[in-house]
C-alpha cells in the first residue's frame, strides 16, 4: 500500500516554523541563562539556524527577546481557550478563573518578563521595544480574564478595581516565589485573595481623584500594569455583548517600537 506523498511546505509555513524555533530557543535561554548570557549567537545555536536566518526575522537582540513575551502569551491564550469549557458555573467559577490567572504568573512567561523588565531599566533600546509589546499582551490578559469570568462578574461595580488589585498582588507574589522560594506562603496568600475577591467585586469603587500619570507610570506594561489604555470595565462591556466571549484570546503578535539596527546585534 503506497503512502500518499506529503504536500510540500509553503513559504509561509517555513517562515512560521523558523520564527517559532527562534522564539522557543530564546525563551529556553532566558529561563536557563538569564538576560545577560542570552546572546543572539546562543539563540542561533539552540535553534540550529544560520546567522542570516536569525537576522532576517529579528535584526536586533531587543526585537528577538521582546517577541518572546507575545509568543508565550499566544500559547497561553490557546491553552486557556481549551480549558475554558471545563470551568465550573456559579460561585466556584471565580476561584477557578483566579487559579488560571495565577498559573500565568507562575510559569515561564513571568520568568521571561522579569528578566526583560530588569534589563530594560538601563537599556533604552530594549525599553522602547518592551513597552508597546507589554501593553498589547496586558490588554489580551485582561480581556481574556474578563471573558472567562463572564458578564455576571464583570458587570459588578468593583470589578475593574478588583482585577487591577489581583494583577498587582500576583506580580508581587510571583516575584517572591521566584526570588525567595516561599511557595507555601505565596499559595496561602493567593488562597486568601480568592476569598476576598467576591467582596471587592461587589463594592462600589472609592470616588477619589486619580493624579495625572507620570512618565514612569505610563511606561508600565504587562507586569507593571501602570499605563492603562482602557479599564477592565470596558472589556466587561464587550463581554456582555458577546455570546461567545470566552473564546476571545490575548492579542497575538507584538508592536515593536525599536528600530532594527544590524550593528547593534549582540
Largest sheet: none
Ranges with pLDDT <50 over ≥5 residues?
Answer: 211-231, 233-266
Query: Helix share of residues?
Result: 55-70%
SSE string, helix = H, strand = E? HHHHHHHHHHHH
| Distance between the first and last residues' Cα | 52 Å
Specify the number of helices: 12
Structural class: mainly alpha
**Roughly how many Å is the radius of gyration?**
20 Å
How many distinct beta strands? 0
How many individual domains?
1
The global form is: globular
What fraction of the residues are assigned to beta strands by DSSP?
A: under 5%
Mean pLDDT: 79
Name its key features.
disordered C terminus; mainly alpha; 65% helix; 266 residues
Describe this structure in words.
- This protein has 12 helices and no strands.
- It starts with 10 loop residues before the first helix and ends in a 26-residue tail after the last helix.
- The protein has helices spanning 11-33, 40-47, 51-57, 61-84, 92-105, 108-120, 124-149, 151-154, 159-180, 183-202, 215-218, 232-240.
- It has one domain (59-259).
- It is mainly α and 266 residues long.
What is the topology?
Layout (H helix, E strand, L loop, with lengths): L10 H23 L6 H8 L3 H7 L3 H24 L7 H14 L2 H13 L3 H26 L1 H4 L4 H22 L2 H20 L12 H4 L13 H9 L26
Helix pairs in contact: 1-2, 1-4, 4-6, 4-7, 5-10, 6-7, 7-12, 9-10
Summary of the model, kept short:
The protein has 266 residues and is mainly α.
Amino acid at each position: 500500500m503506497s503512502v500518499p506523498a506529503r504536500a510540500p511546505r509553503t513559504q509561509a509555513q517555513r517562515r512560521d516554523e523558523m520564527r517559532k524555533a527562534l522564539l522557543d530557543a530564546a525563551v529556553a535561554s532566558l529561563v536557563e541563562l538569564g538576560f545577560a548570557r542570552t546572546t543572539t549567537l546562543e539563540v542561533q545555536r539552540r535553534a540550529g539556524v544560520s546567522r542570516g536566518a536569525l537576522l532576517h526575522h529579528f535584526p536586533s537582540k531587543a526585537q528577538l527577546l521582546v517577541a518572546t513575551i507575545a509568543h508565550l502569551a499566544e500559547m497561553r491564550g490557546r491553552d486557556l481557550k481549551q480549558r475554558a469549557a471545563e470551568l465550573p458555573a456559579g460561585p466556584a467559577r471565580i476561584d477557578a478563573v483566579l487559579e488560571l490567572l495565577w498559573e500565568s504568573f507562575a510559569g515561564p512567561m513571568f520568568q521571561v518578563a522579569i528578566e526583560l523588565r530588569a534589563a530594560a531599566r538601563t537599556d533604552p533600546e530594549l525599553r522602547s521595544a518592551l513597552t508597546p509589546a507589554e501593553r498589547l499582551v496586558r490588554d489580551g490578559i485582561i480581556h481574556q480574564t474578563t471573558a472567562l469570568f463572564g458578564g455576571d462578574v464583570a458587570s459588578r461595580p468593583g470589578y475593574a478595581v478588583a482585577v487591577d488589585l489581583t494583577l498587582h498582588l500576583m506580580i508581587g507574589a510571583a516575584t517572591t516565589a521566584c526570588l525567595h522560594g516561599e511557595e507555601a506562603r505565596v499559595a496561602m496568600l493567593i488562597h486568601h485573595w480568592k476569598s476576598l475577591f467576591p467582596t471587592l467585586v461587589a463594592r462600589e469603587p472609592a470616588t477619589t481623584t486619580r493624579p495625572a500619570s507620570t512618565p514612569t507610570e505610563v511606561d508600565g506594561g504587562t507586569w507593571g500594569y501602570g499605563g492603562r489604555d482602557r479599564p477592565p470595565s470596558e472589556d466587561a462591556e464587550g463581554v456582555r455583548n458577546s455570546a461567545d466571549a470566552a473564546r476571545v484570546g490575548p492579542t497575538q503578535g507584538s508592536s515593536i517600537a525599536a528600530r532594527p539596527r544590524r550593528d547593534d546585534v549582540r
